[in-house]
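__Protein archive entry__

___
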Amino acid sequence: MKLLLPVAGLALFGAGFSGGGSTDVTVIISGGARGHLSPCGCTSPMSGGLKRLATIVRAAKTKGSVVWIDTGDIIDEPGRQSQLKVETYAELMGDLGVDAVAYTRRDRQQGAGLLASGSPLSGTKWLTPLPGPDEPTMDEKAIHGLTVTTADNQSVDFGAEKDSDILVFDGPAGQLDQIKKSHQLEVFASEGIPTVNGAKVSPGSNLRGVVVATFRDGRFVSAKVETLEASIPNDPKADKIYSYYLKRVTDERLIDKVPRDKDDDYAGSKNCRSCHGVVFHQYLTTRHAGAYKSLEHEGHQADPDCVGCHVVGLDSTKGFFYEQTPALAQVGCESCHGASREHARNPRAVHLPKVTEQKCLSCHTPSNSPKFNFQLYWKKIKH
């Protein structure tokens, strides 16, 4: 049985599995974090995250032989916070004993130096070398009796790849037809939730799930997707590693370095009270009024990935600034209705636009708010 793992494309298990003997071997495939190391924890349930991934991997290793492969797509943009994410993820992989990390062309486009910072922390398990983002890559190694090969669309050998037990392929789906014939299970990269469709499975995006395949006596037995649901407890060691990441984000004040490309002038929700008293007091009873506090409880109060949807105007030079503008903390009136300083000064002349469902969807995304339903949620804040 061979496995194909497409990363920016996918990955496969092949038919001539060489390892095993009489011992069961579990192959765990993770990947597609794209900078989402852990949910912000501001709502429940939120699936995914490296702390739950660690629980799955550590539990599997107590039961038998495990091959753990991460197919990359670790980050989705350059910058200091992405470097901290690579180092954090790599440290966890090193602690858990990852067998191979096959980063993608997208990863390499963020810079070789950024990725290289994580290699020693993972136990130097980066499977591919560090060429330029447009150079072909191919690498191969034996892990627990399995031959694991990584290749992109420029370097894949459509004859030699048949000898590989696990092929991690980074390339367009259209080029996979030549490879699929010699592989029985396809683990593909995808946007969205983990999925199972016959011989095709996906762990989903944003570290929402992992694929777990079992071999017995050298033959493929089964494959399933483990969704990293809220019911899976956090791994204590991973919790400590992630907490240290958040401390670094806070100590380096990365929140102060968020790009501000707008100049919208915000008044703060309390300035709405004099004219909209009844509505203001109703607002105070909603979860919007305590949105920033929910981040403080989880340690994300200075995390640029989370703060924007819990304060007013993080993208404006006159919006929220960490520890400087408490009046603009929380999801305020202006989070939905827009900057209102001029409206407050001259309400008869300056009118605010009508708020639509689309405004809500900018923060209530499938990742951040998986149970969001506009009609039901609107009833909670109707005014």
